[in-house]
Specification:
Elements (H helix, E strand, L loop, with lengths): L12 E7 L5 H7 L5 E8 L4 E7 L4 E7 L2 H11 L3 E6 L14 H9 L8 H10 L3 E4 L2 H8 L17
Antiparallel strand pairs: 1-2, 1-5, 2-3, 3-4, 5-6
Length: 163
């Protein structure tokens, strides 16, 4: 364990999870596109914890997990069948405020992304275009469902899901 500065510690790299399934039919319908929800997780080595950030219509969840096999199982279940993009947080030239607080805008705000995306699919394309590292656990399954190419491009990059 490292010494924690008085002002705290902020995660600098987030893994954004693009979920292919929504909580219910209504959320699936308004999301349109392949991805129905977006959340994020990060590892904070100074504290030895994982942080999960998940904004829904009902509430925002901020979950902290000690670095254990149980945490790796939970994170594995979150990414299973979904697509992830790992990005470094941005801090420069951000707008004075953000409109709305729902999953897509909340994740943009969390990672400091300058994007006009209001839906998960658009945020995914933006993050990949900005050099985000893609890992897709459900690309083959998604391609089978759609009968076309996966949402995540092959060769778009690789990520270590745990750091």
């Amino acid at each position: 364990m490292h010494e924690v500065p008085a002002f705290g510690i902020e995660a600098r790299r987030w893994t954004v999870v693009f979920h292919r399934r929504a909580e219910n039919w209504f959320f699936a319908a308004i999301a349109m596109g392949e991805f129905k929800h977006v959340s994020a997780f990060a590892f904070i080595p100074e504290l030895g914890i994982w942080t999960i950030y998940d904004v829904g219509f009902r509430r925002t969840r901020l979950i902290h997990l000690a670095e254990t096999d149980h945490a790796k199982t939970i994170l594995g279940n979150i990414v299973k069948g979904n697509c992830t993009v790992t990005v470094e947080t941005g801090a420069g030239c951000l707008p004075l405020m953000r409109a709305g607080l729902f999953c897509t805008t909340a994740i943009k705000h969390l990672i400091g992304a300058r994007s006009r995306a209001l839906r998960p699919d658009r945020l995914f394309r933006h993050l990949v275009a900005q050099g985000g590292v893609v890992r897709d656990d459900g690309s083959r399954e998604a391609a089978d469902r759609r009968g076309s190419e996966p949402g995540c491009r092959a060769g778009a990059g690789t990520a270590d899901a745990h750091r």
